[in-house]
Amino acid sequence: MGSASSNYESGHLIRRDVRRLSRGARRASPQKTHATLLGYLGYFGTYAADNGAGSVTHRVLGSRDPNRVGTEQLRHFRLDGDTLVIETAPVAPGGHSYRIRLAWCRTN
Questions:
Q1: Distance (Å, whole) CA 59 – CA 69
Q2: What's the predicted TM-score (pTM) here?
Q3: Distance of alpha carbon 55 from alpha carbon 14, whole angstroms
Q4: Which of 4, 8, 16, 83 is the most buried (most CB within 10 A)?
């Protein structure tokens, strides 16, 4: 593992059900712009992995959500054959606990 400054990454997550804007983003209604914004998460920064602990820490340098800028986001990971699974610790907003899980599959 290299130093954190050499490990740059970016992540972009888009909901499948986000609809196209017929008039473009700059001319869309506030309601459509809001729905589009909520359907997208993008960030970039550096990361440091701890293979022994099965964790990775993302240091957020820029994000669509300005509250994440400057934060460290701890995630747990595992390799399952050709699939990399990364997930959050349990979160419980509103009393309902869940994890956010992403899986990347290697293809040939």
A1: 8
A2: 0.75
A3: 24
A4: 4
